[in-house]
Amino acid sequence: MSADTSPVAPPTLRQRRRAAATQEILEAAERHITEHGPHAMSLRAIARSLGMTVQALYHYFPNRDALVTALIAKAYDDMAAAVQEAVDTAGDDADPPRLVVAAEGYRRWAIAHPERFQLLYGAPLRDYAAPAEGPTTQAVRRMSAIFQAAMFDGFTWEQLAAADTPALSPSLQAFLGRLPPDGLGDLPPQAASLLLSGWGHMTGLVLLEVFGHTAFLADHQAEVFRLSMRNLLADVHRRIPAAGGSKGLSEGN
Fold first, then answer.
1. pLDDT tens track of the chain, all 253 residues?
2. Are 228 and 103 in contact (CB under 8 A)?
3. Domain spanning 8-62, CATH architecture
4. Looking at domain 83-239, which of 1.10.357.10, 3.40.710.10, 3.40.50.2000, 3.40.50.300 is its CATH number?
5. CB 205 within 8 A of CB 228
6. Partner of 111 at 20 to 30 A CA spacing, among 105, 178, 194, 211?
7. CA 157 – CA 150 distance, rounded (Å)
8. d(CA 161, CA 156)
């Protein structure tokens, strides 16, 4: 240990108790959402299920929006963990491609947790606005990074910048270029637009299934989704020119 490195003090008993209570409240809120849906969320009902008053709950979450923000961030983190586990379990197998594996992990989590998925992508909760650059934003970026790697792994920055996409307006190019590096800012605008388009396509299909609009496909929904993701990836890769030499997304960045 270097001279200027101080050991991190363990959390105090009070801090551990607060963390445990906060986790218990989040779990109770998730159960409430699962039973009643995100739009019926009631702080009073959540507090009652824990044998506490709303005023006591406010010691941990000062208002409804703070609890909603924590729930959204946790849902994204749990989904990202499920997607990453799917990718890691698949290993280096070329078939199905990693993007397809990641997308299927995303779909499975959504189907297993439809109410929490609706909290993320359903109708917005009335009067709620996520804090700018807050925990929900960071959680979305962690999820996006998994799909970015799965979609563009093996391509250089120059290849991605030369992707054949519809012409982007100067204002859109400038906007994409200003995005933070831990978001889409480390991609050229052409690749960022492809990733956003693919994300919308994937999420739209999952939303249709979660809300029951593709029930007519019965047991074929998984196969149709996989085919769609394969076609999406093939189209994206067709748009990226081939390049000789070693490949790596970090090159030229």
1. 455 566 778 888 888 888 999 999 999 999 999 999 999 999 999 999 999 999 999 999 999 999 999 999 999 999 999 999 999 998 777 789 999 999 999 999 999 999 999 999 999 999 999 888 899 999 999 999 999 999 998 999 999 999 999 999 999 989 988 888 777 778 999 999 999 999 999 999 999 999 999 999 999 999 999 999 999 999 999 999 997 544 444 443 3
2. no
3. Orthogonal Bundle (1.10)
4. 1.10.357.10
5. yes
6. 194
7. 15
8. 9
